[in-house]
Amino acid sequence: MPATVLVGAQWGDEGKGRVADWLAAESDVVARYAGGDNAGHTVAVGEKVYKLHLVPSGILHERVTCVLGNGTVINPVNLINEIEHLIAEGVNVTPERLVISTKAHIITPAHIALDRASEKARGKDAIGTTLRGIGPAYLDKTGRKGIRAGQMASVEDFANSLYASIEEANVTLERQGIERLDPQATALAYIEAAERLKPYLRDTSVYINRRLKEGARVLCEGAQGTLLDVDHGDYPYVTSSSPTAGGALTGLGFGPCHVDRVVGVAKGFSTRVGGGPMPTELTGELADRLRGTGEHFWDEFGTTTGRPRRCGWLDAVVLRYAAQVSGFTELVLTKLDVLSGFEELKIAVAYRIDGRETEFPPSTMGELERAEPVYETLPGWSMDISGIRNAADLPEAARVYIERVAQMCETPVRTVSVGPERDQLVFC
Ligand code: IMP
Fold it and tell me: Most buried among 16, 113, 182, 284, using CB within 10 Å?
């Protein structure tokens, strides 16, 4: 059986967790292929709300095996905490249900300190990272001096590599006038966590290929989003991995012939956390209405950092581009219920840059900063749509909105979410 790839179409936080949870119900394996605990996936199941950072959302489905692929970066301490938290909630997280690639890379305390130091040094040009050590961990990986998860199998080897990573970071930290890390004290919790993660280690590429051959359906769960992709995003305001569909293949180690479905997930409006341009960003009352007050877990505040998200109108320039980069076969539009009550809704159909119109995002920061959105205005709808389950029952204006999004990015919108609960989905 083939594989499905799930990709964020915007700047992350599109609601991929709940979509992954829905698709996991029809999958045998759910695999994360990029990023680390910078991600925050929220899944509501009845009264319970699960906040996952590294463990794939499929863990909430008993028959699914979850994989952390070679493309991910793993903080062993945070992963153990997440596993313990899930177990305390009654979720089965044995090594039969979660496998970690021996080739994934380890986030060390040095990476976290270096992430902080780098952001501080950038001053007003800070990326606005999640400070989880993601960038420095990938930097060590591509610099061929990272620590692979497989090294956790030997405590001595792992500890020595950890000490070396911390000592090397200390040189940079001292140069910046930042206090050195104590290698022994800082590494201790990591070594203890590594011991406990040993049984979960496996060559996950071999594992996934075997399962595909046996007929298993594999869901590749993307984190972050297309505009945060290190190649295709708003560089340098990006994360350091490849959250787009291509990243699923390298981040898990199987061939493109297995993929028959690429599901893009986009919110019905735009949000972004951290720095970088956002052409359709709103301020004031409209932004506040989209963001929510923060009293509900679905309001626009970061799951990982708690930061309020920047909010704006839907940007079809971004969606069109994301659909193209990953080859979406369908789109899921989330949080459509939040748009209820707006008299009119705007969608950016193009950018005007230096007097010229473009339908795709420019590749330089300078141009993107000068980009003015060209809006199309559509009528809003007033009724509460959170109880609707059939597309035919949606107000006419909502159906027009969905159809325009599909036309603009040349991708059918097959599913719409109208609330955070598992069943608050409308199939179009
Ligand atoms: P990093 O991945 O922590 O290095 O952060 C790089 C950029 O990606 C920053 O703008 C972060 O806010 C953003 N980012 C990273 N992970 C997520 C996510 O899961 N959702 C939204 N933004 C994210």
Answer: 16
Q: Can you give the pTM of this predicted structure?
A: 0.97
The domain containing residue 58 runs over which residues?
3-100+201-263
The count of domains in the chain is 3
Same-domain check for residues 144 and 133: yes
Ligand 1 close to Cβ of residue 40 (< 6 A): yes
**CB-ligand 1 contact for 135 (6 Å cutoff):** yes
Report the nearest-CA residue for atom 19 of ligand 1. 39
For residue 239, report the distance from its CA to the centre of ligand 1, in Å.
6
Spacing, Cα 13 to ligand 1 middle (Å)? 9
231 and 272 together in one domain = no
- H or E segment and range at residue 167: helix 155-175
Q: Do 130 and 233 reside in the same domain of the chain?
A: no
The DSSP symbol for 44 reads E
pLDDT tens profile 50-106: 989 999 999 999 999 999 999 999 999 999 999 999 999 999 999 999 999 999 999
With a 6 A CB cut-off, is 274 part of the ligand 1 pocket? yes
Q: How far, in Å, from the CA of 291 to the mean position of ligand 1?
A: 18
Q: Which CATH number do you get for residue 126?
A: 1.10.300.10
- Which residues are known to be catalytic? 13, 41
Same domain, 144 and 191: yes
Q: What is the 8-class DSSP label of residue 377?
A: E
180: Cα separation from own chain's centroid: 32
- Measured from the Cβ of residue 305, the count of other Cβ atoms closer than 10 Å reads 16
Asked if the model's pLDDT at residue 1 lies above 80, the reply is: no
Joined together, the tokens standing for residue 406 give 């599909």
Average pLDDT over residues 108-120: 97
Q: Are residues 217 and 80 in the same domain?
A: yes
Residue 112 in contact with ligand 1 by CB distance below 6 A: no
